């Protein structure tokens, strides 16, 4: 029986059927129709600077190798030998001239082409056509401002069309200077026993949880002379904005607040991010370079980041009940050394497996997941109605469909896109609905 | 300085010092397991550096890149103030990863002492095994080794202060939903 996935999300009424987080059959549809079709974040340029440098990652549950080729371009192919399916490379990262399978020794070059087969003459009588047996290659790979993305779907729209109206907001993170950005070395990786959508949706749409879930961190990091509620985390939702894209992406941030960013990540990175980098002001303008504070964001489906706090992460699905978080810290290449150092420490101390903020997210998501083992729990829909019907699209500073910062508009957008994709809607239909929404909103 | 160097193929540290340092580390573990975090903080010098690098899976030829470097990201990269903030957080009653509290058992093994850079400092290496139970079913193990610099101090309640701690875990991907604990 195929589940009618589109019926599980009602964006108009603001309800979500909890089976989307738990059901194995839905999960398999999700791997096929979402993760094997969407543009997925793979790696940042700075992770693989030299020819032969590689990282291993996942697209959905499929392991891939991301390799800097000799011509400087990036090759992405299945981290799997075509002979018996063994994982080709078992390191997280490194540098290689070729990839040799540890089972029987089939060897692939930096592009994933099969170049060596042991005993090719004796065992195969020179009858194997190596050109047919290269590693399965990711058909579309693109690089936007140092961020490398790929999709398994040759018919997926170009990356920039896929990012669409979210680009204005992504650029506040990714396009701050001509020199661009780079990752600080090392990564935080850990496991949440919960469905990946809880995390992706929260980063897409949920400022509402912060004052409650992260109350202890806010308290610990707020200087004694500040009022926690009003100066740091305004509870007045008109002091911020949330943006939702028809493409499923979303973000939210304060525009009038105390220096929330400084309290989280430190004064130096906050000052640098909010106006301290003159080139960023020139490129992005005042609204994005100085007034987006404490922002959260998700690029559909599973790439999330916090501009200013400068963590970025992939939520890798590992079955319906588990995900892995792979998180990095981003800095402007032209950031002064003291800003870079303060960012390195401030981001890690707040958003990581041991982070003062992030420790508590794991408690929420894992407990939701455990409750969803119950039959009645799975039958009771979730409320995603905050701010329903109150959006506007003529904000002077922030383009697209926006709302107050405490809102679930972006969650509704995320889940609607997810349901449309997971149910198998074609790219023609998916992109037509986006064009139609843009036309309606003028 | 009480350390006595004697010729031995295995160790040059005398029994009394070995005993004293082991008891100090057991006391520290006890403070943590009994959630006496303020007393635990007092065991650290004001200039402490408490550090746990991240780790990646690497092939043998690149094992030197296994742990993140000091200028790269870390699980913990703390000074005294940052450790105090972590305790403030736990004591707030709203640190949901520790409210209800975890149940921890720190086991310290294989304590090996070497003389440090200065006459009043020791380099102490130990293996650590931390069992954590949380709520009704959560179970986590954190296993690794620690390199401490212990500084002898007349002002310290227990004679020694931890001036540096480096923690090297034997997991790359952390198989826990958080590290709201101390090692």
Automatic annotation (TrEMBL), chain A:
Keywords: 2Fe-2S, Aromatic hydrocarbons catabolism, Dioxygenase, Iron, Iron-sulfur, Metal-binding, NAD, Oxidoreductase
PROSITE patterns: RIESKE
Record CDD domains: RHO_alpha_C_NDO-like (cd08881)
GO MF: 2 iron, 2 sulfur cluster binding; dioxygenase activity; iron ion binding; monooxygenase activity; oxidoreductase activity, acting on paired donors, with incorporation or reduction of molecular oxygen
InterPro entries: RHO_NdoB-like_C, Rieske_2Fe-2S, Rieske_2Fe-2S_sf, Ring_hydroxy_dOase_asu_C_dom, Rng_hydr_dOase-A
UniProt keyword annotation of rRNA processing present: no
PANTHER family (alphabetical): 3-PHENYLPROPIONATE_CINNAMIC ACID DIOXYGENASE SUBUNIT ALPHA, CHOLINE MONOOXYGENASE, CHLOROPLASTIC
Protein name: Rieske domain-containing protein
Organism field: Prauserella flavalba
UniProtKB/TrEMBL annotation, chain B:
Annotated InterPro entries: NTF2-like_dom_sf (IPR032710), Rng_hydr_dOase-bsu (IPR000391)
Pfam families reported in the protein's UniProt record: Ring_hydroxyl_B
Keyword list, A-Z: Oxidoreductase
Presence of keyword Oxidoreductase: yes
Entry's Gene Ontology molecular function annotations: oxidoreductase activity
One GO term (biological process): 3-phenylpropionate catabolic process
Protein family per UniProt: Belongs to the bacterial ring-hydroxylating dioxygenase beta subunit family.
PANTHER family in the record: 3-PHENYLPROPIONATE_CINNAMIC ACID DIOXYGENASE SUBUNIT BETA, BLR3401 PROTEIN
Name of this protein: Uncharacterized protein
Lineage summary: Bacteria, Bacillati, Actinomycetota, Actinomycetes, Pseudonocardiales
């Amino acid at each position: 029986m195929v589940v009618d996935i589109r019926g599980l999300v009602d964006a108009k009424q603001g309800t979500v059927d909890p089976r989307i987080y738990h059901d194995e059959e839905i999960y398999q549809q999700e791997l096929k129709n979402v993760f094997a079709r969407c543009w997925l974040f793979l790696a940042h340029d700075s992770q693989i600077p030299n020819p032969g440098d590689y990282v291993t990652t996942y697209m959905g549950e499929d392991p891939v190798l991301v390799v800097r080729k000799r011509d400087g371009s990036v090759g992405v192919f299945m981290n799997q030998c075509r002979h018996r399916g063994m994982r080709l490379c078992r390191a997280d990262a490194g540098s290689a001239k070729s990839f040799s399978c540890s089972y029987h020794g089939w060897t692939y070059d930096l592009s994933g082409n099969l170049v060596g087969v042991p005993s090719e003459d004796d065992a195969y009588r020179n009858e194997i056509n190596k050109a047919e047996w290269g590693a399965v290659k990711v058909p579309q790979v693109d690089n936007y401002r140092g961020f490398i993305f790929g999709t398994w779907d040759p018919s997926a729209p170009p990356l920039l069309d896929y990012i669409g109206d979210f680009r204005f907001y992504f650029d506040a993170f990714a396009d701050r200077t001509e020199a661009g950005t780079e990752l600080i070395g090392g990564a935080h990786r850990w496991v949440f026993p919960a469905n990946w959508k809880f995390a992706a949706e929260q980063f897409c749409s949920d400022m509402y949880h912060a004052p409650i879930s992260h109350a202890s961190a806010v308290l610990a990091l707020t200087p004694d002379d500040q009022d926690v509620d009003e100066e740091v985390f305004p509870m007045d939702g008109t002091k911020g904005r949330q943006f939702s894209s028809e493409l499923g992406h979303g973000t939210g941030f304060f525009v009038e607040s105390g220096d929330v960013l400084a309290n989280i990540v430190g004064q130096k990175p906050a000052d640098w991010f909010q106006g301290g980098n003159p080139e960023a002001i020139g490129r992005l303008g005042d609204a994005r370079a100085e007034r987006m504070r404490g922002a959260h964001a998700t690029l559909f489906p599973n790439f999330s980041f916090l501009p200013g706090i400068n963590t970025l992460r992939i939520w890798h699905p590992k079955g319906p009940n588990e995900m892995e978080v792979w998180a990095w810290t981003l800095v402007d290449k032209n950031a002064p050394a003291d800003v870079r150092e303060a960012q390195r420490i401030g981001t890690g101390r707040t958003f990581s497996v041991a982070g003062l903020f992030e420790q508590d997210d794991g408690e929420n998501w894992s407990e939701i997941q455990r409750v969803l083992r119950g039959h009645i729990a799975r039958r009771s829909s979730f409320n995603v109605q905050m701010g329903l019907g109150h959006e506007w699209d003529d904000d002077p500073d922030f383009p697209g469909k926006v709302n107050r910062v405490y809102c679930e508009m972006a969650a509704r957008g995320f889940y609607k896109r997810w349901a449309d994709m997971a149910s198998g809607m074609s790219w023609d239909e998916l992109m037509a609905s986006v064009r139609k929404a843009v036309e309606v909103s003028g | 300085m009480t350390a006595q160097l004697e010729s031995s193929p295995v160790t040059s540290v005398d029994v009394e010092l070995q005993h004293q340092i082991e008891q100090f580390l057991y006391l520290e573990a006890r403070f943590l397991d009994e959630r006496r975090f303020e007393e635990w903080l007092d065991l650290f010098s004001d200039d402490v550096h408490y550090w746990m690098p991240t780790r990646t899976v690497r092939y043998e030829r690149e094992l030197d890149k296994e742990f993140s470097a000091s200028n790269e990201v870390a699980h913990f990269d703390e000074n005294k103030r940052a450790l105090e903030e972590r305790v403030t957080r736990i004591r707030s009653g709203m640190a949901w990863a520790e409210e209800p509290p975890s149940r921890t058992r720190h086991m310290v093994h294989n304590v090996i002492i070497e003389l440090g850079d200065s006459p009043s400092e020791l380099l102490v290496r130990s293996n650590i095994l931390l069992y954590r139970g949380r709520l009704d079913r959560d179970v986590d193990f954190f296993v690794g080794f620690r390199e401490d610099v212990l500084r002898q101090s007349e002002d310290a309640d227990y004679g020694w202060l931890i001036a540096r701690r480096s923690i090297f875990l034997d997991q790359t991907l952390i198989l826990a939903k958080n590290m709201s604990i101390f090692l």
